[in-house]
Amino acid sequence: MKLKRDLEMIPPQGVMVDQEETQTLLDLIKLNGHLDDLISVARSASGDLIDEVVFLDPEDALGVLRKFLSGDISTQELSKWPEFVYFLDTIGVAEEHQDVLIQFLFEISTPELFFEVNRETCLRWVSRLRQEIG
Known about the structure:
mainly alpha; 7 helices; globular
């Protein structure tokens, strides 16, 4: 899994992204920091790039859910996070898990259409993502 993650960080041919910019995008994926600060820095790092540089995978989503379940992030942060992960062109979704991850991002970011973002909803997603990983 580590090798796969390393390979996923290699930018497509012709895209120039330095290690600091890549780390900034990974920090947003993993929600390592204050969300608003991460969004601002990630937007700047993405610049005019339209190619995916890093990829969200189920383990990343599980890590963010664990942060919510432990009280490290709020309901509002959890609901806001997917919007920026999904809409930044430089962040992709792991192809082999694309269906479940896109559904996860959509449901978590639009609780008014699905389920309230709470402990029960997050535990359901933890279970589903663990099944996805196998």
